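Appendix B. Chain record.
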Amino acid sequence: MKNNFSRLFHLKNIIFTSLLMTMFLLACSRETQVEHPAWINKLIKQFESEPVGNPPLSIWRYDYNDQVVYFIPAQCCDIPSTVYDADGNILCAPDGGITGEGDGRCPDFFSTRSDEQQIWKDPRSP
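Structure tokens predicted for this chain:
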């Protein structure tokens, strides 16, 4: 009887440990879901409904001038890039345009931005 109790106890420990390990591995394998402002999700849907660009569109998050900003690089040539504040208001165009230097409202953007995080990149191929 004591031997059966010992086996049962050992079996329960194995099952419990296996369940814990499985839960741990599942939790570790999930990507961390980061909440973005609603206007970013709307912009992503808009981009996905348009033909794929070359290079594909992307959205980047930075800290700039003590605030969170979102940067959308230009796709080509004289088209300006766009920097948005956290509320979706356009702050500036740091590059692009005829001069290649943007609209002049954030000339230090590329040299002072920090904490780069890619938020989204169009997964489609050009």
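Further analysis of this model is presented in Appendix C.
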